[in-house]
Amino acid sequence: MATSERTFAGIQARLERTRVIAVLVIDDPADAVPLAHALLDGGVDIIELTLRTDAAMESIRRIHAEVPDILLGAGTVLTPQQVGEVKAAGAAFAVAPGTNPRVIAEARRVGLPFAPGICTPTDIEFAIEAGCRVLKLFPSEPSGGLQYLRSIAGPFAHLGLQFIPLGGVSASNAEAYLREPLVLALGGSWLAPRELIQRKDWNAVTANARELSHIVKHVRGGNL
């Protein structure tokens, strides 16, 4: 990955191109590299690897070292200590399910692009106060989906905020989300669900990624 793509602007530009982040839970570091290649084969080149298992940090290190075409992020970053750990492991950005001012401040201090999770107008105000402009809407569908996003984003429209919805997003509603101007990219946990990874069904992962890549292409009118 080019050094320029590890900057805030570079990562945002990459997200605008790809429009998809594969959200992963990995139990065995040995699965990390073949999984990353399976996603790449399907046209998805951005990953949020969540810190939900003991295998996560080593998985980040392996993908960073062996699959440079992947823009690699860390998810479920809940503490300031984890910010430094994921950056040292090779993550180019980090994401959280909520808005923790201490975590955001540490990410800013070490220069790690960070997207906090929001679900309410108050969350958005905390994120804005901390200097964030790209926010993760979580959980998206259980909260009300696109209609809810438009409602809570309305008072902040003049600030140019962009959102990454995650939670209940799937191939069936991806096109509607991708056509929404507020949406920078989608978080796709259905592309490589935990059970597929545990079965090492890389063909199914590639098929899911390719399906979503085709949806992105369709939304763009056939232009990648």
Short summary of the structure?
Helix content is about 45%, strand content about 15%. With about 220 residues, it is an alpha/beta fold.
What does this structure look like?
Helix 2 packs parallel to helix 11 (202-219) and helix 4 runs parallel beside helix 5. Helix content is 46%, strand content 15%. It has helices at 8-18, 32-41, 56-66, 80-89, 101-110, 121-129, 140-143, 145-153, 174-178, 194-199, 202-219, and strands at residues 20-24, 46-50, 71-75, 93-95, 114-115, 117-118, 134-137, 162-165, 186-188. The protein has a single domain, classed as Aldolase class I (TIM Barrel). The protein is α/β, with parallel strands linked by helices and 224 residues long. The radius of gyration is 16 Å and the shape is globular. The longest helix is centred in the last third of the chain and has 18 residues, at 202-219. The strands form two sheets. The protein has a six-stranded parallel sheet with strand order 5-4-3-2-1-9, with helices on both faces. Helix 2 (32-41) links the parallel strand 1 (20-24) and strand 2.
Give helix % range: 40-55%
Spatial gap, N to C terminus: 19 Å
CATH architecture descriptor: Alpha-Beta Barrel
Shape descriptor:
globular
Proportion of residues in β-strands: 5-15%
CATH topology: TIM Barrel
Secondary-structure element sequence? HEHEHEHEHEEHEHHEHEHH
Q: Helical element count?
A: 11
Q: Which class do the helix and strand fractions yield?
A: alpha/beta
Please give the number of β-strands.
9
- Rg over CA atoms, rounded to whole Å, is 16 Å
By CATH reckoning, the class would read: Alpha Beta
> CATH homologous superfamily, by name?
Aldolase class I
Mean pLDDT: 95
Indicate the low-confidence ranges by residue numbers: none
* Structural domains: how many: 1
For the biggest sheet, the summary is: 6 strands, parallel
Strand order, sheet with most strands: 5-4-3-2-1-9
